[in-house]
Amino acid sequence: MATSQDVLSREDFLAALQALSHRYWGTHPFHQRMHAGELTEHELRTWAANRWYYQCMLPQKDAAIISNCPLPEVRRQWLDRIVYHDGKVDGEGGAASWLRLCQAVGLTREEVLDQRHIAPGTRFAVDAYVNFARQQPWIIGVASGLTEMFSGHLMRQRVSDVLAGYSWIRREDLAYFTTRIDKVSGEGKETVDLVLEHCDTRALQDAAVAALSFKCDVLWSLLDSIERAAAKG
Ligand SMILES: O=C(O)c1cc(C(=O)O)c2c(n1)C(=O)C(=O)c1cc(C(=O)O)[nH]c1-2
């Protein structure tokens, strides 16, 4: 007789992870308004400036996973994510592309870099994600990044909807997303494979599902914070 402690098959474990897709930030009202072309320039600027904090902290989150991981082959693989965001040299990489997007929506480099627009809730949500990766077993930190399974579709939709809805934003301004879409299709599969392989007890499988649920909360809270900060004007 199957009990709640039985290890799930790969298929059932993957299905339990994918079942969280309805909690992903694609359905957040702020994203829905962005996609409908309804955001004001101020709202777009608040979004870009606040999300900068997420972009900044991702390499520290990934470094925390590496520091907790005893497996050289995984550390080697994961290191690529840090280089992806930070670039090999200053002015390259995901962070630099995000800065270009910030400038395209009308922010100066200075006001993004000095973080003056970052709302308390943004810091709180993003810091919670980094602390989670610091404190959890490495594979559970990896599992929290599985929201990326859901992100390719959303980013593709975002590029076409933003180009359709905001005539002053050009395709090259969205290079962060067009580059990321290609990257995420490969990385996303790698991450799923790691989690399916290394979460080999029911306790780890349950912890991975809980980690993905936690990450959906982080992203949702981030948009709640952005929406509120933008409404204050
Ligand atoms: O624009 C998006 O909707 C979106 C979502 C996510 C995500 O689902 O966490 C990431 C990204 N973008 C992204 O660009 C990115 O580099 C990234 C890294 C991670 C992560 O958890 O390690 N998520 C995401």
Q: What's the CATH first level?
A: Mainly Alpha
Strand content: under 5%
What is the residue-mean pLDDT, rounded to a whole number? 95
Q: Rg from C-alpha positions? A: 18 Å
Named CATH architecture: Up-down Bundle
Helix content: over 70%
How can the largest sheet be summarized? Answer: none
Keywords: Oxidoreductase, PQQ biosynthesis
Pathway: Cofactor biosynthesis; pyrroloquinoline quinone biosynthesis; Cofactor biosynthesis; thiamine diphosphate biosynthesis
InterPro entries: Haem_Oase-like_multi-hlx, PqqC, PqqC-like, Thiaminase-2/PQQC
EC number: 1.3.3.11
Task: Give a brief outline of the structure.
This protein has 233 residues and is mainly alpha-helical. The protein has helices at residues 10-18, 29-35, 41-68, 72-86, 93-104, 109-113, 120-135, 138-144, 148-165, 175-198, 202-232. The radius of gyration is 18 Å and the shape is globular.
Topology summary:
Blueprint: H1 10-18, H2 29-35, H3 41-68, H4 72-86, H5 93-104, H6 109-113, H7 120-135, H8 138-144, H9 148-165, H10 175-198, H11 202-232
Helix pairs in contact: 3-4, 3-5, 3-7, 3-8, 3-11, 4-5, 7-8, 7-11, 8-10, 8-11, 9-10
Domain Thiaminase-2/PQQC: 16-224
Catalytic activity: 6-(2-amino-2-carboxyethyl)-7,8-dioxo-1,2,3,4,7,8-hexahydroquinoline-2,4-dicarboxylate + 3 O2 = pyrroloquinoline quinone + 2 H2O2 + 2 H2O + H(+)
Protein name: Pyrroloquinoline-quinone synthase
